[in-house]
Design brief:
511 residues; 4 domains; 5-stranded parallel β-sheet; globular; transmembrane helix; membrane
Length: 511
Amino acid sequence: MYSLLSLASPFPTVLFHYLIIHPPLEHHPNLLYYQPLSTNAHHQLLQATTPSHFPISLKPPPPPKKKKKNTHLHFHSTSNNNPKAPSHSFKSLPKINMSLQTPTNNYHKKMKLLHRPIRTNIPERSLLSIKNLRWLLLLWFSLSLFFLLISLSTTTTKNSNFSSLRIYIYDLPSTYNSDWLSNPRCATHLFASEVAIHRALLRSPARTTDPSQADFFFVPVYVSCNFSTLNGFPALGHARGLLYSAVHRISSDMPYWNRSRGSDHVFVASHDFGACFHAMEDVAMAAGVPEFMRNSIVLQTFGVTRPHTCQNVEHVLIPPYVSPESVRSTSDPATAERDIFAFFRGKMEVHPKNVSGRFYSKRVRTEIWRRYGNDGRFYVKRKRYDGYRLEIGRSTFCLCPLGWAPWSPRLVEAVALGCVPVIIADGIRLPFPETVRWPEISLSVSESDIGSLAHVLEHVAATNLSVIQRNLWDPAVRRALMFNEEVQYGDATWHVLVALEGKLRRRRMSD
């Protein structure tokens, strides 16, 4: 069967052949209308228009002159006595009943379908056959059903009460966790998400006290609370040993670690380079992820778009910890008066120290201080100040440059307080992008473009600042980056549970 979409013959010829092969045009009401031929005439026309004769002109011969008695036309005449005869030969054509070619038999009326153009008011798509239309309808229905199922799945996840998720929390000796809380900073420091997640999971509806029913096993070890360094930041030298000790204990006392080789066990690594447990990138990369944790799931703040040793483990990106109480006490971001154009307060070295070949912040913060320290549009301070969150609440743009690692707690503080984050950390990955649409609420400036920073901010302020602020001030955005004592719908721990639920669903589908 020929098709209008598959034949490469000239369109009028193909259309003629298509109509001859498909005479019952009541199935094609949008094509041509013509008087049906008799069965015998249709058969003879079909024989005369087979593909082997398509090169022959299908133009009908002129009607005979009335004064001649002989009304039959002689197709085979090619003698010199008839100079107007066509130059090509019709000998190969079968003889056709001459009654079809007489005016009295409406031959010309029936053959108008060869030259009658398609009505111009009929759209081109109407030339599709019924079969093709059925395939298009089937494809449309299949795609609609597919996207409907995805939408239902997403809606189910976003409204999940985690009834299908079960997490067992190991009851480790207090030396692994709660003893560290004797220092109050342990629960409030920027690395304190390891404490907050543990506390929230203990009260979560996803928690089970029966390990045989568990889908995941949470290992609560606080490795970021050893504040023994001179600069006041946590030391991490003990982290690997403490974690290994915990794994040795749970694998000796219970069968679940050995059963899965730790693949369903969850840890938190909330410091600079996550699962590598070191503050200096080159040292962290040289050490890599501890071998005993390489099959496990790590909740970590570190993430980059390029391949990196410290994220060569199944992981979930989480935000750094910012106390919910510290931002709830501030004014509503949408109504705050913002009299500071661009703000940064933090460590900036005037002459950056070379620490074994490494420069803090890749000298980005030093360049910010050098270029904008005396610029009236920028409020840039090197000294720490306990009330600096009030300054964030007064600012339009908040600079978030990298430190030793790409991420910074200023990013969360800026979002929570309604200040547009200006991210200066090449290749950083950010948490929960399905809820926090980072490109719509923040700016990204390359580390090498610090010199054009003022121009970029001025341009945004004059164009689409109000749109960015409207997106930023959505309460769901702030909520997604906050850890609470108990899991709340849409908060950071809730997003962690959603991620684990997704991993569980994929695991079950692959089994």
